[in-house]
Amino acid sequence: MTDDREIMSIYRSGDRDRAFRAIIESYRERLYWHIRRFTCSHEDTDDLLQETFVKIWTGLPDFREDARLFTWIYRIATNETLNFLRRKKTHGMANAEPLENILYRKVDDDPYFNGNQLQRELHKAIQKLPPRQKAVFNMRYFEEMPYNDMAEILGVSAGALKASYHHAYSRIKEELQKIF
Length: 180
Description:
Elements: H1 4-12, H2 16-39, H3 42-59, H4 69-95, H5 99-109, H6 117-127, H7 131-142, H8 147-154, H9 158-179
């Protein structure tokens, strides 16, 4: 796995294909799981991951390195995923079933899910969160991402993210206490 400074050095040297392959190698798995926690679907995640890498490829020439490569890539992945969920929700309004209910059921229907009952219920509780709280909770709880990194990715202050995480944590705890 190549670190971000090395990737950008390769890119600036003119070997753009090699730099992009290094980005894919370094970020594919992390981004897959980041996106998957939102969609609960292997197929949707694969599609979004591909779209994310296309956006990275097309945006890389304009990347001025004002932000770190890591946070820029995560911002693209997060925005692509949240936009996808918004489109699904808008489409779902015509179908009368809320997107949250569909995502909630996908946890049970996921043939790739291999957790125990507590983990399953945790993921179902996460699906009930609003998209922004879900993003904050997932990045902090599963990825152990620092609030400052999350602030760069989401464009929100670290203080607001701490409050959002606390609200998400409280809602999830409440949901799990109903069950266990």
